[in-house]
Specification:
Elements (H helix, E strand, L loop, with lengths): L1 E4 L2 E5 L3 E6 L4 E6 L3 E4 L4 E6 L2 E6 L3 H11 L5
């Protein structure tokens, strides 16, 4: 699934997640098992393998769509 958000695109599969940031041409990638989700504010949190990054989403709808694909709950 591909989600558009204000800073680029989020590509989600059952195995991994990629965030492609426009302008800077940066790609953040993480395995699905290293992804955490937060409800307030809606955030993606990648933490694993010595790498840690987070991204605030535009809306709860985006969070719900990511939850549906990855099959994980937000905290």
């Amino acid at each position: 699934m591909v989600l558009d958000f204000s800073q680029g695109k989020i590509i989600v599969t059952e195995q991994e997640l990629q965030v492609r940031l426009l302008g800077a041409q940066i790609v953040l990638q993480a395995s699905a098992e290293d992804i955490g989700l937060r409800r307030q504010p809606p955030m993606l949190i990648a933490d694993g393998g010595g790498v840690r990054w987070s991204l605030v989403l535009d809306s709860s709808c985006q969070l719900s769509a990511i939850q549906a694909v990855l099959g994980i709950d937000a905290q």
